[in-house]
Structure formats: structure tokens, C-alpha cells
Inverse folding.
């Protein structure tokens, strides 16, 4: 029996990252099948926030499977929402095979792993047994096994969130002609809007300045079924998959749906399915949307997909894995695991799972409002577009925010509370106190149909969080400088006010808009008498974001 401080299960992207960032010589990384094939080939820029990860970009861009990723495109019922990446604004968006990406990380960081399969765990004694030997763990078992969810399965704590099934294969790209995509949009009279990546702002209607074939294209076929199309090898190979909540997808059904829904810009040729290589197979994975009962205890930590593996709709999986692995390793280096930190971690994952489920449910269950007249957005000045476009924007932005690196490790907007220290964020506490004083209310006091909960900094202003009453959803008010160039809903002196909510329910949309406007109407006179103080608070907030 070998004694170790930390035992990491899983030598994929999360396990490699934990092993590299965790500064502990008595740490062992186990992987049952090093270098094995993995799905997950669409990479978000947020994965490369940390400078040590960002240094690897040039080598990853030289990998054979690399293709530049120009953004993401969501299509549903004649409505298109695209998120192009502005040239030079963000780096790291790519399509690449996981094996090549992980090999670059291993080679550069000198990460070593042992080829062993975990077969049993005794949490009371903190003993992990493999097909080779046994380990006595002094501190924590860190599960980075991804959708395999090794530890949760061994502890019999895994439950299926919903019965999702997927089938995918690879196709040769014979041609990628963007003009055909634009022509199809016009001929089919689809409504198409393009948004700033990660922001709630509409771009110009010039649809001819980017390559849709370089984006991840996600198409909703019908309620409970959608497809992905991801180009690899400099747009020579296409990963094409179908996800369904209606049961397994047969080989015949896969080809029928695929042929009927190939993106108009592509001309594809099916590859021979003879098993001669990883791209000459049909893959099937059923009941893969699963979650663990407990994300962490004082004995173990489940990282990213090892805690909850859901749908790849928003392509945030690898970014989430890398950034949460860095955050966990940083905590263990700085202070070690504690009951308070563990509680914050579990609360954070609980909120993250709720947000992910809401996003996936929205995509799956067809909550999009079909009637354009009834589909006016919660706030036209902020979320221009129909209900599908505005709601997919909300859920996509939230998924990106959840997968981003902690604000304490990278100066990102604080759309989520840092799980590492959930009760002692002095910045949020101070801003909340000042906001309460300026509004003349107490924390938790109602104004109209919402109660004020907290204030926290954003890169372009101050966010005020409100909890809904009368079954209304949560609402956030952004207080920014009115001359910032972005459209604003209401102005107060030199300030601009915008609000947004998470709703896709037709029966609450009108009441949300009415009550949200009423809240703004009540905030304006409260703020008008102290506009100079509010402007100073906004400037302070921007400086701390």
C-alpha cells in the first residue's frame, strides 16, 4: 500500500491540470486508458484564461486536427442566433481532438500518470484500490474522470437527470461555401441575429464577414432532439452528432436525420464505417446526463464532469474542466480543504447544475414562444430579437460565465459568487451596504415585486441582484455609465439602467416586462437624488471587477 497526500482519478484534461497546478510531491495521477479517444472537440476561449494554459496555444494551433473556431451558431424553428468571435478580441477558440490537446499539455508540463484502473474505494479508511495496487490517501481523493464518474459510481451516488441518448460519426468535408448558408437564410426567410460573444449586444446585420462553417453549428430538429456540426483538420473533417431525449438513435435514423439537416454551407461525404480508425466508426452513448449526489466532502472532491455530466449544447465542457481544476488546485495549495470551503464548493456546484439544467430544459422542451407578436423580448432595448434568440443568449452567456476562471485568478465579471470564500467577499459586502444606503432600503427589502439581495462589480458597471416574489424569476439591474456606447433602457443623470431576467415561459413574459419596468420606475427617483454618489460607486465597481 502506497501512502499519498492526494490521489487524482482520471488523466484527461481536468486531471492533467490538477496534477500540474497542485504543488504537492506526494500526489499520484491514475488513468485507466492513457491517450484514449474522447468526444468534446469544440473549445471556448475561456479555457485559456490562465497564463500557463495560454502559453500552450501556439503548439495547439500546430496540431493536425486544429481548426480555428469563429464562434457558435444556434438554429431553431427558422430562427438563428450567432455568436461570432471578434478578430483578435479573444484567443483560444478552436476545434481540436482531445487526444492532441491533452498531449500538448502533458509534454509541456511534464505531467506523469500511472496506467491503473480504480476498482474500489473505502472512504472510511480513505483507501483506493486499483487493478495494480492500493493507495492510502492522507488528504483528498480528487475525481477528474469526467463522464465516467468513477468515484460517484463506486459510491453508488450517481443518478440520471434525464434519459438523453446520442449517436455521432465523422464525415469528410468536400466543400464549405458560406454563400450557400446566407442564401438559405434568405430563401427560407429565417430570422437571423448576431451577438457580441459573451455580451448582450447585437452586431451589425452584415452577414458576409465571417465563415459559418468555422463555427460550432447547433440545430434543434424538434422538441427533445438536436444536432451538432463541428469541423476539424482545417475544415476537412466534420463531427456530426444527434442528441435525443426520445430514446436511442439507430444507425438508419442517424443517417436519415443527418442528410436532412446538413448545414447549407457544407458538401459532405460519408466515411466508411469499417472500424479501421477512430473516424471510421459510429458512436453511441445513452443515458449520459447524470449527476452525483454530493460534489465534495472532506474526503473527496469531484471536479467538473465527474460531478455532473450534462449536454454539450454550449460547448463549455473543457473550459469548465480546466478552470475548475485550476481553482481546486489553487485552494489546496493556499489553504487546504476545510469544511467552510467544502460547503461553498457544494453550493457553487448546486447553483451551477441548476443553471445548466435550466439551459438544457429550455433547449429541449420547446419553451420558445412561436408567435412573433407575443415573443417581444423582456426588454427590446437590451435583448433585441425574438424569444428564441434572447433566451438562447441568456443561457449561453450564463454557461460561459459559469465555466470561466474565478475572478480571484482572472479579472472577469462576477456573475457568480466565488465558491472558495462564499461568506467573506468584502467587495460584495461593501458594495451591497452602500447600494442599500443610497436606495434607502435594507437588504432583503421589497421594492415592487422584487427584493434586493446584493450588489457586485462587473467590467462595465455595478450589478444589482433582485429576487422575484409572486413566482417571478430573479432579475438583475446593470447600473453603468450612460456614455458607454451600449444601448440603455433608462438614464439617471450620467447613469444608464438595464435589466434582464431568466424566463422563457409565455405566461410570465408580459408580467415580467411590466414588473421589471415598474421596478426601474421606482429606482429612478431613489437614485436621482444621489446621482453623483451612484456615479462614484459605479466607477469604484468597475475598478474592482
Amino acid at each position: 500500500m502506497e501512502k499519498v497526500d492526494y490521489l487524482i482519478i482520471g488523466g484527461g484534461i481536468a486531471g492533467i491540470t490538477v496534477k500540474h497546478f497542485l504543488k504537492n510531491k506526494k500526489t499520484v495521477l491514475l488513468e485507466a486508458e492513457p491517450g484514449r479517444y474522447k468526444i468534446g472537440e469544440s473549445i471556448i476561449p475561456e479555457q485559456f484564461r490562465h497564463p500557463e494554459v495560454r502559453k500552450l496555444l501556439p503548439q495547439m494551433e500546430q496540431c493536425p486536427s486544429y481548426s480555428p473556431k469563429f464562434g457558435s451558431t444556434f438554429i431553431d424553428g427558422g430562427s438563428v442566433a450567432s455568436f461570432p468571435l471578434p478578430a483578435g478580441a479573444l484567443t483560444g477558440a478552436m476545434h481540436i481532438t482531445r487526444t492532441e490537446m491533452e498531449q500538448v499539455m502533458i509534454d509541456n508540463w511534464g505531467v506523469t500518470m500511472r496506467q491503473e484502473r480504480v476498482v474500489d474505494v473505502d472512504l472510511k479508511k480513505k483507501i483506493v484500490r486499483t487493478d495494480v495496487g492500493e493507495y492510502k490517501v492522507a488528504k483528498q481523493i480528487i475525481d477528474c474522470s469526467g463522464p465516467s464518474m468513477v468515484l460517484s459510481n463506486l459510491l453508488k451516488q450517481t443518478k440520471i437527470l434525464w434519459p438523453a441518448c446520442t449517436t455521432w460519426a465523422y464525415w469528410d468535408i468536400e466543400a464549405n461555401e458560406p454563400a450557400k448558408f446566407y442564401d438559405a437564410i434568405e430563401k427560407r426567410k429565417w430570422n437571423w441575429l448576431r451577438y457580441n460573444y459573451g455580451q448582450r449586444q447585437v452586431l451589425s446585420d452584415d452577414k458576409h464577414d465571417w465563415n459559418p462553417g468555422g463555427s460550432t453549428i447547433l440545430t434543434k430538429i424538434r422538441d427533445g432532439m438536436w444536432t451538432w456540426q463541428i469541423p476539424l483538420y482545417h475544415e476537412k473533417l466534420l463531427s456530426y452528432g444527434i442528441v435525443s431525449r426520445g430514446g436511442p438513435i439507430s444507425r438508419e435514423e442517424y443517417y436519415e436525420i443527418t442528410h436532412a439537416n446538413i448545414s447549407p454551407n457544407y458538401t459532405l461525404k460519408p466515411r466508411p464505417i469499417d472500424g479501421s480508425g477512430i473516424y471510421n466508426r459510429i458512436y453511441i452513448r445513452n443515458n449520459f446526463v447524470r449527476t452525483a449526489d454530493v460534489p465534495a466532502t472532506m474526503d473527496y472532491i469531484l471536479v467538473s464532469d465527474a460531478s455532473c455530466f450534462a449536454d454539450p449544447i454550449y460547448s463549455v465542457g473543457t473550459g469548465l474542466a480546466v478552470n475548475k481544476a485550476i481553482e481546486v488546485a489553487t485552494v489546496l495549495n493556499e489553504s487546504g480543504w476545510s469544511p467552510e470551503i467544502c460547503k461553498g464548493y457544494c453550493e457553487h456546484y448546486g447553483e451551477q447544475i441548476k443553471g445548466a439544467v435550466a439551459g438544457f430544459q429550455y433547449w429541449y422542451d420547446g419553451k420558445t414562444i412561436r408567435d412573433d407578436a407575443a415573443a417581444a423580448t423582456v426588454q427590446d432595448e437590451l435583448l433585441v430579437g425574438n424569444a428564441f434568440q434572447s433566451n438562447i443568449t441568456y443561457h449561453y452567456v450564463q454557461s460561459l460565465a459559469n465555466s470561466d476562471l474565478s475572478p480571484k485568478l482572472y479579472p472577469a465579471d462576477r456573475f457568480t459568487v466565488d465558491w472558495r470564500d462564499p461568506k467573506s467577499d468584502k467587495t460584495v459586502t461593501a458594495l451591497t451596504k452602500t447600494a442599500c444606503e443610497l436606495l434607502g432600503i435594507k437588504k432583503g427589502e421589497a421594492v415592487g415585486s422584487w427584493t434586493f439581495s446584493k450588489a457586485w462589480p462587473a467590467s462595465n458597471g455595478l450589478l444589482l441582484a433582485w429576487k422575484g416574489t409572486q413566482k417571478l424569476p430573479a432579475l438583475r439591474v446593470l447600473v453603468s455609465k450612460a456614455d458607454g456606447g451600449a444601448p440603455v433602457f433608462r438614464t439617471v443623470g450620467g447613469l444608464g439602467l438595464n435589466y434582464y431576467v431568466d424566463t422563457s415561459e409565455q405566461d410570465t413574459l408580459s408580467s415580467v416586462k411590466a414588473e421589471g419596468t415598474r421596478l426601474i420606475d421606482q429606482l429612478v427617483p431613489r437614485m436621482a437624488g444621489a446621482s453623483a454618489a451612484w456615479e462614484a460607486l459605479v466607477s469604484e465597481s468597475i475598478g474592482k471587477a
Observations:
- The first helix runs from residue 13 to 21.
